[in-house]
Amino acid sequence: MQRCKRCLLPASVAGAGIDATGVCVACREYSPKAAEITEAQRAVYEADLEAALEDCRGRGQYDCLVPFSGGKDSAWLLYKLVVEYKLRVLAFTVDVNIPPVAWKNIRQTLAKLNIDHLTFAPPGEFYRRIFAYLLRHQEARGAVYTVSYVYAPLFEGDAIKLAIEKDIPLVLAGYSPGQPEPERMLYEFSRPLIEKTDWTPPELQRCGQFSPAELSRFFNPASYAPGTQFPRYLAPFHAWQYDQDLAMKIVVEKQLIASSRNASPIFSNYPINWLLMYSDLLHFGYNPYAPEFATLIREGKAKLSEWRVMGPLVDLMIKRRWFLGRHVTEHLKWLEMTAADLQITLPQGAYDPILPT
Question: Distance between CA atoms of 252 and 109, rounded to whole angstroms?
Answer without folding.
Answer: 10
